[in-house]
Amino acid sequence: MDNQQEVTAIHHSIVDSTMAIIAGLFLIEQINKNGAKVFIHEGIKIDIDKDLIVLGLKVGLEECLIEDFGESEGLNRTYGLLKKMYAESDDKPMALTQFGQEMLATLFIDLAEDIKAESNAIIH
Q1: Reduced to 3 states, what is the DSSP secondary structure of residue 45?
Q2: Number of helices and strands (H, E) in the chain?
Q3: Dihedrals φ, ψ of 97, to 5°?
Q4: Among 3, 57, 63, 79, whose CB has the most other CB atoms within 10 angstroms?
């Protein structure tokens, strides 16, 4: 493995770790809000777990940015957006920012809308 491949592998690891942190924070919020590991939108409940949230971030964010900007720049932009999705400080526990909450909610609202459209197509 040459140096550039090694740097890219490390960068992927950093992005993946950051996604896992964000997924954990979102999961905690949903458990506190809904009493279970579910996302609810307009009566549609979606069972969620950390892996599903990370997958959503990978597909909805990382893969799109890598496709648009190439691997190195795409990873840089992904990491930049991920860092805006949560905040940490010495005096407060780590938490999602409003931007992070909105991004993740949008991801799962879109999924809920797809499920609703699919179920309406099946019913009619």
Answers
A1: strand
A2: 5, 4
A3: -80, 170
A4: 57
Q: Mean pLDDT across the chain, nearest whole number?
A: 90
CA 13 – CA 42 distance, rounded (Å)? 36
Question: Structure tokens of 119?
Answer: 């179920």
Cα atoms in the Cβ-side hemisphere of radius 13 Å centred on 27: 16
The residue whose two tokens read 């971030």 is: 57
Tokens of 37: 């590991």
Mean pLDDT on 77-94: 93
- This prediction's pTM: 0.87
Closest to 53 measured CA to CA, from 76, 25, 32: 25
Between CA 72 and CA 62 the distance in angstroms is 11
